[in-house]
Design brief:
Layout (H helix, E strand, L loop, with lengths): L5 E6 L2 E2 L6 H20 L2 E9 L3 H10 L3 H18 L6 E4 L3 H16 L3 E11 L4 E3 L17 E10 L2 H13 L4 E2 L1 H12 L6 E2 L1 E2 L6 E2 L7 E2 L1 H6 L1 H4 L11 H6 L4 E5 L3 H15 L7 E4 L2 E3 L14 H8 L1 H10 L7 E3 L1 H31 L2 E2 L8 H26 L3 H22 L1 H4 L6 H22 L4 H10 L20 E2 L13 H38 L18 E11 L7 E7 L2 E7 L7 H4 L3 E5 L5 E3 L2 E3 L2 E2 L1 E3 L5 E3 L11 E2 L1
Parallel strand pairs: 1-3, 1-13, 2-3, 3-4, 8-14, 13-14, 15-16
Antiparallel strand pairs: 5-6, 5-7, 7-9, 10-12, 11-12, 17-18, 19-20, 19-22, 20-21, 22-25, 23-24, 26-27, 26-28
């Protein structure tokens, strides 16, 4: 193909809070099909994807798992990249926002915007959604909850830096009006204009102080740069942008992006915040931002809490890579949400892949072997006017499809493009019914016509497979291999008759897609559904434990205190008590609740020594108890004192009892 210049395509970078589900992976498959198609058209494509790795949610996830945030994101980023490779994604760059060069550029961008007056220091007070890491005003909430995810929001106030959004609002409105292709589909553009831009933009919070897992502001390190200014800039930092004016030749070649492909839920950030950041930096805006719809599970949005999450690796393990790619691409409407169930994937696999495509290829190769020893010859014979008409119609359908597919892809109507391609395979199947090769084979006088029919079928199939390659690359290659030829360049797809006459197809045709037994599919789905429900329950329990531990930490004063030496005990009120009962505090990994008899009184005492003593070991022990403490509620349990324990130099913990003195140099726990 003649070179058509550069084409820079990006996806949203995946957030590394957890393993993405198939609804998230749909975007990367969609982007890959576009990138592969553009390469086949002759474009010099650069396709970037990656991971978004900073933010409060990640910090909390890591804390709950007992690991560092970097350890957490390294693990999840590896999973995300592995899923890309599993799905045969042909990305050119996988960027991580923890990459050193990205972090340095984000800091330089922040400083530049601050120095030129676009960023100023203030304080933010509003309703905050932790999963979305977004502040909202009361008027923006939907039924008192986050308008994006529907989650719980909490009042929050903190010092922050803000970006002056209103400064650039009119300029952005003008750009959108003058470039109707900028936001697609049109419904997304109308939503952004009517709901956000025209009512007036509020200044945007671009730093945080309530957590530390982020890129520090160089001149005010207690602030970390807020997720969107960090994440969105990956589209330019990943190709060599430099805020000091020393951008690479790659950046100069590739920017502006030809297409940002993102989910409809983050269209606001990409069509309002991101263009305004670029305007402030004096950089051109991307040519197009396309907000694709969601892939739903059984009609509902996928979430762990609902137990309806489906992962790409589970689907691939059962259906195969290209069957999954085909389904998510073919079943997603242009603007409206698509739907996925195991039954629907299986039905589409059986009807389109096993029957329409797989059976066509297998029958054609088998007949070529049966009637001509695998040799395919173009004898160009039509015995009747009807033969000529049928052949002409087949050739017109096959050679006319390329232009139709290009037109659909220009509008990013990928599902419609696939439908056009499968129109070739359906026409070939109809051609078999019209020509009846098995009947022609019974008459030796019609051998040349039979050879012509089989040649036309092989030619139609290879043209269809060449068009199919961007969407189902493995399948397209398998078809070409079985036909003993190569996939064609796009500039050859409007010519019929390029298959080498006299070539020999494989004598061992492979079944491309086996028909699936719906009972087996239902059984597999039930097994995974059971596993999902169990995982959802475990996830809910983990969340509850994390909340309980957080509440416990908030309830216990954990500020460092001056060490209390043994001699200081005499100045404190403590008594000997006997533990008469003990049990673990619900949802806590650290606390034990004991009833301690001191004289004639019984006191309820919570002690943080669960890791060292079981409840059974505590009962019957005589212990030293601090009694001059104000009652406090710890993890929902009222505590009226403290059981003393001590830690020696080797880290061993022991109860302080009347019979046992404190170890030398010990610290009170």
């Amino acid at each position: 193909m003649e070179s058509k210049g550069k084409y820079y395509l990006t996806t949203a970078i995946a957030y590394t809070s957890a393993k993405p589900h198939i609804g998230n992976n749909y975007e990367i498959v969609l982007a890959d099909s576009i990138a592969r198609f553009k390469r086949k058209e002759g474009y010099d494509v650069f396709f970037q994807t990656g991971t978004d790795e900073h933010g409060q949610k990640i910090e909390l996830k890591a804390e709950a798992a007992g690991i560092t945030p970097k350890e957490h994101v390294d693990k999840i980023a590896s999973v995300i990249r592995g899923l890309c490779d599993l799905l045969n994604i042909s990305y050119d760059k996988f960027i991580r926002t923890t990459d050193e060069d990205h972090e340095k550029q984000v800091q330089k961008i922040f400083k530049r915007l601050y120095d030129q007056g676009d960023i100023y220091k203030g304080a933010y007070e509003g309703m905050y959604c932790t999963p979305c890491e977004s502040f909202w005003t009361e008027s923006q909430l939907v039924d008192g909850k986050c308008p994006d995810c529907g989650g719980v929001v909490k009042p929050a106030k903190e010092e922050a830096y803000f970006f002056r959004m209103s400064k650039y609002a009119d300029k952005l409105i003008k750009h959108i009006n003058e470039h109707p292709e900028f936001i697609q589909p049109v419904s997304r553009k109308n939503e952004m204009m009517n709901n956000f831009l025209l009512p007036g933009l509020q200044d945007l919070c671009v730093s945080r102080t309530s957590f530390t897992w982020g890129i520090p502001v160089t001149f005010d390190p207690k602030h970390v740069i807020y997720v969107w200014l960090d994440a969105l800039t990956n589209y330019i930092t990943g190709i060599g942008y430099d805020a000091d004016g020393n951008s690479t030749e790659q950046y100069k070649k590739l920017w502006p992006a030809d297409l940002h492909l993102i989910g409809k839920d983050i269209i606001r950030f990409h069509t309002i915040y991101w263009p305004i950041f670029l305007m402030a930096l004096g950089e051109p805006l991307p040519k197009q931002v396309f907000g694709h719809p969601w892939l739903l599970m059984g009609g509902g949005k996928m979430s762990k809490s609902k137990g309806n999450v489906v992962y790409a690796d589970d689907l691939v393990d059962y259906f195969g890579v290209d069957a999954v790619r085909y389904y998510v691409l073919h079943e997603m409407p242009f603007e409206n949400d698509g739907n996925l169930t195991w039954e629907l994937v299986a039905e589409r696999t059986n009807s389109d892949l096993a029957n329409t495509l797989g059976n066509l290829v297998n029958r054609t190769i088998s007949m070529s072997n049966k009637y001509f020893g695998g040799v395919v010859e173009n004898r160009n014979v039509q015995l009747t006017e009807n033969d000529a008409a049928v052949d002409a119609d087949l050739k017109q359908t096959v050679t006319g499809t390329y232009a139709k597919v290009v037109a659909k892809m220009e509008e990013l109507r990928v599902a419609d493009a696939l439908t056009e391609i499968f129109g070739i395979f359906k026409r070939c199947n109809k051609y078999i019914d019209e020509t009846e090769p098995w009947v022609l084979a019974k008459d030796e006088a019609k051998a040349d016509r039979l050879a012509t029919v089989l040649y036309n079928l092989v030619e139609g199939i290879i043209i269809g497979a060449s068009l199919l390659e961007p969407y189902m690359p493995e399948t397209a290659e398998k078809i070409a291999k079985q036909l003993n030829t190569s996939l064609r360049d796009f500039d050859q797809l409007e010519q019929f008759g390029l298959y080498e006459s006299g070539n020999r197809v494989t004598d061992q045709p492979e079944i491309l897609f086996a028909r699936l037994d719906m009972k087996d599919v239902a059984k597999k789905e039930a097994e995974l559904e059971e596993a999902m429900i169990k995982a959802a329950a475990e996830h809910e329990a983990e969340e509850a434990n994390a909340e309980a531990e957080k509440a416990e930490q908030e309830a216990i004063d954990i500020e460092p205190k001056t060490e209390i030496e043994y001699d200081d005990f005499a100045k404190m009120q403590f008594q000997v008590g006997e533990i008469i009962s003990c049990e673990a505090v619900p949802k806590s990994k650290k606390l034990l609740c004991s009833q301690v008899k001191i004289g004639s009184q019984v006191r309820q005492i919570v002690s943080g020594i669960k890791a060292h003593y079981s409840p059974e070991e505590m009962v019957g022990k005589k212990v030293m108890v601090l009694v001059n403490l104000k009652p406090a509620k710890l993890a929902g349990v009222m505590s009226e004192g403290m059981i003393l324990c001590a830690e020696d130099a080797e880290g061993n913990l022991a109860l302080v009892t009347p019979e046992k003195n404190m170890p030398a140099g010990a610290e009170i726990c």
